[in-house]
Write a structure and sequence with these properties.
By secondary structure, this protein is mainly α. It contains 13 helices and no strands. The chain has two domains: 105 residues; 83 residues, Serine Threonine Protein Phosphatase 5, Tetratricopeptide repeat. Belongs to the PPR family. P subfamily.
Length: 224
Amino acid sequence: VPDTLKDMRLYGALLNAYVGAKIRDKAETLMEQMRNKGYCITPLPYNVMMTLYMKLDELDKVEELVSEMKQKKISLDSYSYNIWLSARGSHGSPESMEQVFQEMDLDPRIVPNWTTFSTMASMYAKSGQLEKAEQCLRNLETRITNRDRMPYHYLLSLYGSLGNRGEVYRVWNIYKSVFPNIPNWGYHSVISSLVRSGDIEGAEKLYEEWLPVKSSFDPKIGNL
């Protein structure tokens, strides 16, 4: 590839490819080359590398990259904060996760999005802090934009994890009112959530509801 084409976009695309394939050594070597060329001036390459370290469960490396960004005065974006939150939560320390959220909340450029609250709810649920988890889910719901299905799937799954079948049904009814056609994944989310919350009868009813409307047969749903 001619040197003139080896710009930030090309390096960034290659970094994404290495991280997607979890080729750590090549990703780290390329990141170092990008530093030396002055290409690491936005959050993007740091976010990509933090994603790699999350996949490899090397959470301390996420902290190192956040520290480097701060040292170089590269502002964290929403994605940076959300990965950092997830890393802190994965350490099993809700308190240190809350410190990141407070920093995020004080950053005038950042508005916490539904992913932020989904991440926090999941971590609180794992640590048994159910009230805090449910508060995060209420905050998540206020961040949903009309045409985005993904938050509903997370809400269904997380309320199922908390064993709150009443909220599973409430969110499901809202989801169906917003989107007339529910994909297989939506049925998978609600049925698995009802199974987890102990409502086998309700799960079976929704399975019967899914059969005539399914877009294609999904064995994962039948195996729930």
